[in-house]
Design a protein that fits this description.
The complex is a heterodimer of chains A (248) and B (365). With 248 residues, chain A is α+β, with helices and mostly antiparallel strands. Chain A has six helices and twelve strands. In chain A, the strands form five sheets. A three-stranded mixed β-sheet of chain A has the order 1-7-8, with no helix packed on it. A three-stranded antiparallel β-sheet of chain A has the order 3-4-6. Helix content of chain B is 69%, strand content 0%. In chain B, helix 7 packs parallel to helix 14, helix 12 runs antiparallel to helix 14 and helix 12 runs antiparallel to helix 16. The chains are: A alpha+beta (248), B mainly alpha (365). At the A-B interface, helix 1 of A face helix 5 and helix 15 of B. The structure holds iron/sulfur cluster (2 copies). The site of one iron/sulfur cluster (SF4) has 13 residues of chain A, from helix 2.
Chain lengths: 248, 365
């Protein structure tokens, strides 16, 4: 049988031991006089978060096309679509489930969801963590006590704190997503069973049906279609597809 | 009656702490009736030693501020801040005062398996016992009880300390406390012998065990005459006070707090400062044995207080060094600690003893 290899610690001789000990004590003394303290005195000062920090999610209902992308993509099942008084569906986020992956923001086709650097929101209980759409439009109330913000800097393999007076801006200004205009198209007309799910689904009323010669005929109005893809997802025969809009 | 008071006052007046700086103030005092006696008593050397230095005042201040200094220094060395929020513009300096207040108002919980009478009396008993060595420690020329066997008595009292810790652990009657107590007992044997041998080496070197004489015989401080004994004594002191590399008995990570795990409220508060009390006494002892006690350049105008000042400065220096170990070294395992105590330390202590004998022999020849 092959014997197991024994792991042994490094061996030091006496002079090396003395050297390392003296070095350690020296560093401790140096640091206790001129410390490189890393502590951030929150809330008197805040750490400056990077621009791609994933924090609280803001929502702009005007840009939302109710495509359900966010709720489909959410790996934690935190987003539920709720019907608003204007009969459209808007997302709500349950922060008790959210893992702050921001997939929803990345997948938002209308650019309606926006990331912020806010990470210090307090809730009294789990139920309160369920955030309805109305509360996502406005920022949560924050009491800003910070007079400085702190950045970590790496200098010659050493970490330093850099303090700057002033408040850190908590929003992330991202350019609006480059939208490739898409339209829904039927790729296999022969297989349409005329269930009219797509017509019911469409938020913008782009799909209409008419009866011609006793046959049901579906029509997609390219001008009205927002390219949200809802009909594509719901089509029972899977014959709808999003295609790049080619304007003539 | 009057005669008695007169003889008493004579004894008191014959042994006063002389401080030239406040003499003009003292000259005014006889006009105020009672104050004169009170000040005379305060400045009576034995009482001054008990009440002010090295006794209650300096000792109390040490207990009040050294835990803070330790935490602050270690925090800085480890890129943290240490105590901060209480009076944050002073760096949290009154942290221990605040802790003490909190301890005072906390309930002392005695769990149902504990040996109730012992459990309650040991913290208070050990706190007082730990103060006893201060009676024999001189600050400069000021000492409460002067005997030619002071060092031996101090060592004997210091050796009593672990017994009380064992008592604490036994009275707690809990498994963590038991394990901590057994570890304490193991470590006790490991450090005590080299520690005592190192002290004996210095007694042999100076040919006396009277601290005042020792100070006067250290024209060259003991740490240069016998650095090996000094090293052993220092490591022994670190082991005895359970400072970081030897925090084996009350290892927070596995045993919560070892022997003290069951204590709460002011009883815990007292135990918490016990190790600082011990560290203070051992640093004072180290100052006497190796750093020349209160000897140092006389500061004009302070008279006897100059010795006191030097003594306090040296003691605090040793104390700070002892506490800084915490920032640098991780903890030894019990077997490593025992190995260190029983082999290298014992050998070094014996070498220290041999050095002392050689120095004495050279002197005689
Ligand atoms: S951040 Fe991720 S987990 Fe949270 S709601 Fe968006 S998709 Fe769901
Ligand atoms: S992905 Fe964006 S546009 Fe689509 S429903 Fe969600 S928030 Fe609205």
């Amino acid at each position: 049988m092959k014997s197991m290899k024994k792991v042994v610690g490094p061996e030091y001789n006496l002079s090396e031991k003395i050297k390392t000990n003296v070095y350690a004590v020296g560093v401790a003394m140096q640091e206790s006089v001129y410390p490189h303290t890393m502590t951030v005195f929150y809330p008197r000062e805040r750490k400056k978060m990077p621009d791609n920090y994933r924090g609280f999610i803001l929502f702009d209902p005007d840009k939302c096309i109710s495509c359900f992308n966010c709720s489909f993509v959410c790996p934690a099942n935190a987003i539920r679509m709720k019907e608003a008084p204007n009969k459209r569906y808007y997302p709500t986020v349950d922060y008790g489930r959210c893992i702050f992956c921001h997939f929803c923001i990345d997948s938002c086709s209308g650019g309606a969801l926006k990331a912020t650097k806010i990470h210090d929101v307090a809730y009294k209980d789990m139920d309160e963590m369920f955030t309805p759409t109305e509360e996502m439009i406005e920022l949560p109330e924050i009491i800003r006590e910070d007079k400085k913000y702190v950045e970590y800097e790496i200098e010659e393999d050493d970490l330093h704190l850099k303090r700057t007076k002033g408040e850190d801006y908590l929003f992330v200004e991202v350019p609006p997503p480059i939208q490739i205009p898409m339209v829904s198209q039927c790729i296999d007309r022969a297989n349409c069973i005329g269930c009219r799910v797509c017509e019911e689904m469409c938020e913008s009323g782009a799909i209409s049906s008419s009866v011609e010669n006793g046959m049901l005929r579906m029509k997609i109005d390219t001008d009205k279609c927002t390219g949200c893809g809802l009909c594509v997802k719901e089509c029972s025969m899977q014959i709808l597809m999003l295609k790049k809009l080619e304007r003539k | 009656m009057m005669e008695m008071i007169d003889t008493l006052m004579e004894t008191v007046m014959s042994n006063q702490v002389s401080i030239p700086l406040i003499e003009p103030m003292l000259d005014v005092l006889p006009e105020i009736p009672m104050l004169q006696y009170m000040v005379a008593f305060m400045l009576w050397k034995p009482l001054f030693a008990i009440l002010i230095c090295p006794g209650l005042t300096v000792g109390g201040l040490t207990l009040l501020f050294f835990p803070w200094i330790e935490r602050k220094l270690c925090g800085r060395a480890q890129w943290r801040v240490g105590p901060h929020e209480i009076v944050w513009w002073l760096g949290g300096v009154i942290q221990l005062l605040a802790d003490t207040l909190r301890f005072l108002f906390q309930e002392v919980i005695v769990h149902k398996d504990a040996h109730r009478p012992y459990f309650l009396q040991f913290p208070f008993l050990s706190f007082t016992i730990f103060l006893l060595p201060l009676l024999f420690i001189p600050a400069g020329t000021i000492v409460a009880i002067q005997t030619p066997y002071a060092i031996q008595i101090i060592l004997a009292l210091v050796c009593l300390f672990p017994l009380f810790i064992l008592g604490l652990g036994w009275a707690s009657n809990s498994r963590f406390a038991y394990i901590g107590t057994v570890r304490e007992a193991f470590m006790y044997f490991a450090y005590e012998i080299p520690f005592i041998i190192a002290a004996i080496a210095m007694i042999i070197l100076y040919g006396t065990s009277d601290p005042l004489l020792m100070a006067s015989r250290q024209s060259i401080p003991g740490i240069i005459l016998n650095p090996v004994a000094a090293l052993v004594f220092f490591i022994g002191a670190a082991m005895a006070t359970g400072r970081m590399p030897f925090e084996i008995a009350d290892s927070d990570q596995e045993l919560c707090a070892g022997p003290h795990v069951e204590y709460s409220g002011i009883a815990f508060g007292l135990i918490y400062v016990l190790c600082y009390e011990k560290a203070y006494i051992l640093s004072a002892l180290m100052t006497i044995l190796f750093l020349g006690g209160g000897s140092g350049p006389v500061i004009a105008g302070l008279g006897d207080l100059s010795g006191v000042l030097w003594f306090v400065v040296k003691t605090y220096l040793v104390l700070t060094t002892l506490f800084m170990l915490r920032a640098v070294y991780p903890r030894y395992r019990l077997d490593q600690g025992l190995k260190l105590g029983w082999s290298p330390m014992l050998c070094l202590a014996l070498i220290g003893l041999a050095i002392s004998l050689v120095v004495v022999a050279v002197r005689v020849i």
